[in-house]
Every structure is written in C-alpha cells, then in structure tokens.
Amino acid sequence: MPRRSSILVIDDELSLQKLMENFLKDDYDVTTKGDGKAALDWIHQGNIPDLIICDVNMEPMNGETFVRNVRVGELFKYIPLLMLSGDEESKTRIKFYELGVRNFITKPFNPQELMVLVRLVLNSY
Fold first, then answer.
1. Cβ pair 63, 8 in contact under 8 A
2. What's the whole-model pTM score?
C-alpha cells in the first residue's frame, strides 16, 4: 500500500481547520495548527509534510512570515505551499508567488476546488 501524502493546514479559524481536515482526511494524513509559529515549531521537530495549506492573515505569526521562515532552510525549501486569503488583490498573490508559493485560493472557497488544487499540487511531484 502506497504511503499517504501528508498535509499541514495552518489557519487561526478553528472552523476552517475542521472543514479542511474533514474534506481531506479520507485521502491524506492531515495535521492542523492555529498559527505560523505553532506550525514552524511542529516542522522543526522533524515533521515534513508533502503540502502546506496556510492562511495569510494570522497572529502571532502571519502567513508571509511563516513562508519566509520555511523557505530559508534547505530541508523545507521545496515543500509546496497553497495559501488561503480573503484578500483578492493581485499584489498580495504576486508577493507570495515570488516567495515560492505554488497556488492561492480565496476565502470563502469551495471545498471541492480546494481538493482539486491539492491533487494538482501533489501530483505534480
């Protein structure tokens, strides 16, 4: 039996964490964290997911700071990132694409669209 891909979901809204976990858990091993700092600590403990889905606006560590920290280390540099944001501005997306983010999905989102994007990202490796 092939290994299931692992996904780290980072969002400060518990309802969105649960929604994404419920939609993804049948096909993937899902871990949720409430902010970028908790997620970075988890990764630095040796947990390396196949994909990270991360909210842009969180406290105490927002999505941009999280991405910058993840992209610094060689070990984590190539983990695909999918960002979630209520901000539809092109400049926000461009900033994250320049940081190495794979894709963007705007909140509120259709969970089926999220599933398709997850499959596309994970199958491109």
1. no
2. 0.92
At 30 the three-state DSSP class reads strand
Q: Could you tell me where the DSSP H helices lie in the chain?
A: 14-24, 36-44, 63-72, 90-98, 111-123
pLDDT tens profile 10-60: 999 999 999 999 999 999 999 999 999 999 999 999 999 999 999 999 888
User: 51 and 82 in contact (C-beta within 8 Å)?
Assistant: yes
Asked if the 6-123 domain carries CATH number 3.90.70.10, the reply is no
Tell me which amino acid residue 12 is: D
Domain ranges of the chain: 6-123
Report which residue type is found at 95: K
